[in-house]
Amino acid sequence: MATLWQDIRYGFRVLARSPGFAVVAILILALGIGTNGAIFSLVNAVLLQPLPYRDAGRIVALWEEKKQEGIEEMGTSARNLRQWRQQNHVFESLAAWGNHTCYVTGLVEPRQLKAVMVSANLFSLLGVAPLLGRGFLAEE
Q1: How remote is the C-alpha of 90 from its chain's centroid?
Q2: pLDDT at 61
Q3: Which of the residue ranges 29-33, 48-52, 82-86, 116-120 would you say has the lowest mean pLDDT?
Q4: Contact, 118 vs 97, CB < 8 A?
Q5: DSSP string, 49-111
Q6: Whole-Å CA distances, 103 to 6, 107, 108
Q7: Residue/partner pairs of 56-59 with CB below 8 Å, 24 or more apart
Q8: Coil, strand, or helix at residue 130?
Q9: Which of 7, 10, 30, 108 is the most exposed place for a label (fewest CB within 10 A)?
Q10: Measuring CA to CA, which residue among 123, 126, 125, 97 is closest to residue 134?
Q11: pLDDT(31) > 90
């Protein structure tokens, strides 16, 4: 333990002799520690924490592929989804979602909006409720 304190005192003496080097070393250490903390926070939030849905570990995603056209992941049609639901013996429920672009006109200039179209049972499958209003009905 005594040699540890001797080493620490020696380190401070060396840093005191060259203050420019000491400032640069401290800034580099602070930047490295801060970056490490930020990256861990991001990885923890995105990869390590479970999704905020009921039974998040049981949620899977299904895609179709067209190997002849070189497409590895593509969405499915409503017709195929209905067939999958009829022939399903594995999954508790199947739901669909897809990204879309919408345009709002009638304003001074048209505006482009990002939208997501979902099947009626998506919210119940995820175990969440809309913040406002109600969920969708199958006939909608």
Answers
A1: 26
A2: 83
A3: 48-52
A4: yes
A5: SPPSSTTGGG-----EEEGGGTEEEE---HHHHHHHHHH-SS-S----EEEEEEEE-SSSS-E
A6: 71, 11, 13
A7: 58/92, 59/126
A8: coil
A9: 108
A10: 123
A11: yes
Single-letter code of the amino acid located at 15:
L
Q: Give me the half-sphere count of Cα atoms (radius 13 Å) on the Cβ side of residue 62.
A: 14
Could you tell me the two tokens for 32?
Answer: 């490295």
Structure tokens at 126: 């995820």
Token duo for residue 58 = 């049981």
71-74 and 97-104 as β-strands: parallel, antiparallel, unpaired?
A: unpaired
The pair of structure tokens assigned to 15 is 């840093």
Q: Which two tokens stand for residue 136?
A: 């969708």
